[in-house]
Amino acid sequence: MCKTQVEASRQEKDGYDTTGLNKGILYLMTIPYVLMGTVGYFWYRNSKKKKVANSR
Hints:
Oligomer: single chain
Number of helices: 2
Shape: rod-shaped
Structural class: mainly alpha
Distance between the termini: 58 Å
């Protein structure tokens, strides 16, 4: 779908700038990784605290 839009825009305008589209794709791609990393970090930190509390 995105490819079709870019091709249609290229035919209408000479020198169509695709950097906005590329930035949008990268933005949408990084959100899941950041969320999963955050959840993983807190999960690791919580499990580490439980191990320390159980060893005492």
